[in-house]
Design goal:
Two copies of one chain form a homodimer.
Chain A (H helix, E strand, L loop, with lengths): L1 H13 L1 H6 L5 E5 L5 E6 L5 E8 L13 H8 L11 H8 L3 E6 L4 E8 L3 H13 L5 H20 L2 H13 L13 H4 L4 H11 L5 E7 L3 H11 L23 E7 L7 E8 L8 H14 L5 H9 L3 E8 L7 E9 L5 H18 L3 H19 L2 H12 L5 H12 L3 H11 L5 E7 L1 H4 L2
Parallel strand pairs in A: 2-6, 7-11
Antiparallel strand pairs in A: 1-2, 3-5, 3-6, 4-5, 8-10, 8-11, 9-10
Chain lengths: ~450, ~450
């Protein structure tokens, strides 16, 4: 606790203007004529920049049967273009002393490079090039598919927790792409081909479906000039389809699943509830759920930790998780890892009792104040990281939020009341929209 | 039993040639130049014909977010064409003393009329007309959408068993359209519009995606001449897409759900297992599962009935169901309705014990012989119904089977051995590919 207070004090003194005036990011936004949105986060403490291009497309935008194609294309974007050889992109970045990478999620795919500030133009030149000039050979696509299957093997197939999570998600969603893994189902990845990648690329990779985010030692004027020069000439895709997202029918049946694997060393109970995401202009429910996750399971002073770990020694670990930054309905997740002598059944019963107790007892205003202060503190720390700010805008803008929504979020969190949180908790903690999973060793399953 | 034997004897004497020579349908098949497949089933006992057009498209072929459009279009096919007024189709059929209707399933949509044999040409003229000349107004589409919403309300929303079944199916399938109801999710039906119907119609309604089946008092030569005259001039759709069907990832987690509704008078336990369908040239597993369903739960002499209803009085009803006529992986379903004093938990435990007992004990050859004789008898009865034969070919040809597959099926069933059935049972009765559902009254759920 002392260490945490010390950190807060340090953070507050470093960030005094923000703390005093409320949180305001040093961001500038504008849009190019071709529809490409631009966000600039100034930070002149070091002579470096982070250059990111975020596409408004992720795994949940994939056509049926093509799961994994968003992530596959992300890999293939490091292959040849009309003017660059395969692999040359990252070699150039490295030769300039920088580093680059990319990531794919349900709602977005992003590419970034971190380089010395005077290399920003070069990064834009290369990124704009691969936005339109990608050239794929059958051979390279095949090789990369094997890389991705190996990635899936190591991250998912060899990880019972990941396999369990996939089955949980698939049962949580009846009708929405969030029920399909980002990396893709293995049997569908195995069938992805060059034309699938090109179709996806030609449909979704265009300036009017992208956000450019530059953070670091740069001015908005410099970014605008460079962006207009490099990205400006790329025409908008007039046939860009709207994001087709199916929504869930009423979920009216409490679901359970058990997953047994001989590799499981530590069994646990997982619970997920369908939950609203942050919506543009209406982030209050998501704010309440964000705080609810902290109150319920956000560390050793949380309700679940007190009830399950310290008062009863039912659990060796418990946690609650919610991230509302999603285009569509997301999940509120809870996990309870029982102690050595405690059955999954008893752990689950204790979890349900603890949740009922939370709703009955209501929220201690001191706990709420503490959580709000922690959130404020972490936002203040966040102000220190231009890259963190860039990520925050990138995730927000690709999940249906506006710059104003992203900026309003900290204050909406602070304005959340005890009653908002209890109401949000009652609204989502519905058994009939939940999935309860038991991850078991094969031994337990046979008992 | 006596009554059943009597019926069999009557059936055998009526159908003696088929019985003596094996089952051979009086069918002729050919294909028009535009790709339309034709099946003719001759039956000259009455001067009537059944005229059917089956399209190789059903609810499992719908685009994401458009659930219900196959069934919606089926309704709209009774509206106006360029030369017929809305509703006139059925009026003409009725004026000729006939009757007509249509139906939609996961894999097919079919339209049929039953009329005097000399009206066959008129039926073809009208059916060929609406294959290409449908004209939809916004007003009629809107009216019909309300009809369909009302249909859903009465069949599903007011029927807890149907709602329960929808949630079971959605949990059974992670990645395939069989997890979505044929009639559509209500929230998606509400958004279906004229253009959705026209897109679906223009994509899938074409002679090269259809099978014409005519049964009754007609010769193949007559059908060919009429079909060439009426359907022959319609061009094939060169852009007909392949049937895009996603397949399931490994199902590795036993799932359970409970569904409570105050309208439930009789609670029960339902269990579904993912199961293979009849595949062209490889129908043996499906044949074994067809017989397994009869052995396990096909009436009062079945294993489940004996174990659960008569020996133990656990259940007032039990049944097992399997229909392998599907394009993709289907389900094997079991239901147990417990007695008044028996809990769902106890009923489920008794079901699992009975299944384990079945696998342990193996199959009594006399039981297998009895089931085979029943199947043979019902096939012989079926020979008496030209319409039944027409439906059998229609369902087979729209689910990936050939005429030869349909004809081979009775013999494949008869060739199934005890070992085939036990192997098939062991292969599908896997908890990790199953869903167990409890349909409960609200009262029970709160206990």
């Amino acid at each position: 606790m002392i260490r945490w207070l010390m950190s807060l004090i340090v953070a507050v003194s470093l960030a005094l203007p923000a703390w005093a005036q409320g949180l305001h990011d040093a961001v500038t936004t504008f849009t190019l004529d071709n529809g490409m949105q631009v966000v600039v986060v100034e930070d002149h403490r070091a002579p470096a920049v982070q250059h990111m291009v975020w596409y408004n497309v992720g795994s949940a935008d994939e056509p049926p049967g093509k799961s994994g194609i968003a992530h596959f294309l992300e890999h293939l974007m490091f292959k040849a273009t009309e003017t660059m050889e395969s692999g040359e992109f990252s070699q150039v970045v490295a030769a300039q002393g920088g580093r680059d990478n990319a990531f794919t999620s349900y709602d977005y795919t992003a590419y970034f490079q971190r380089v010395a500030a005077d290399r920003l133009g070069l990064m834009m030149e290369m990124e704009a090039d691969r936005m339109v000039n990608l050239r794929l050979t059958e051979q390279e696509v095949e090789t990369e598919r094997n890389v991705i299957i190996e990635e899936r093997n190591s991250r998912v197939e060899n990880n019972p927790r990941a396999l369990f999570g996939e089955q949980m998600n698939a049962v949580q969603y009846y009708n929405h792409g969030y029920g399909i893994p980002i990396i893709g189902w293995k049997h569908e990845i195995e069938k992805l081909g060059r034309q699938d990648a090109l179709d996806f690329y030609e449909t979704f990779y265009a300036p009017n479906n992208a956000t450019l985010i530059v953070s670091g030692d740069v001015t908005p004027e410099e970014v605008r000039e460079l962006a207009e020069s490099h990205y400006g000439p790329i025409p908008a895709n007039p046939d860009l389809p709207p994001r087709l997202r199916t929504s869930e029918p009423p979920q009216t049946a409490a679901r359970r699943l058990s997953f047994a694997d001989p590799r499981v060393a530590q069994p646990y109970v997982a619970r997920s509830y369908l939950a609203p995401a942050r919506d543009s202009g209406a982030q209050e429910k998501a704010a309440a759920l964000t705080i609810l996750a902290e109150l319920l399971g956000g560390g050793t002073t949380s309700h679940l930790a007190e009830e399950l770990q310290f008062d009863n020694e039912i659990a060796v670990y418990s946690g609650a998780f919610y991230d509302g930054t999603a285009l569509d309905e997301t999940t509120f997740d809870i996990i309870v890892v029982p102690g050595a002598e405690v059955s999954l059944e008893d752990a689950e019963a204790a979890l349900d009792a603890a949740l009922a107790g939370f709703l009955d007892e209501g929220i201690d205003p001191e706990d709420l104040d503490r959580i709000k202060m922690q959130l404020r503190a972490s936002q203040i720390y966040g102000q220190d990281s231009a890259d963190g700010i860039a990520n925050r805008y990138g995730r927000g803008l690709t999940t249906g939020l506006t710059v104003a929504d992203v900026q309003a979020w900290p204050d909406i969190l602070q304005a959340t009341t005890e009653q908002d949180i209890i109401e949000a908790a009652r609204a989502i903690l519905r058994p009939e929209a939940s999935v309860t999973g038991w991850l078991m060793s094969a031994e337990e399953a046979s008992q």
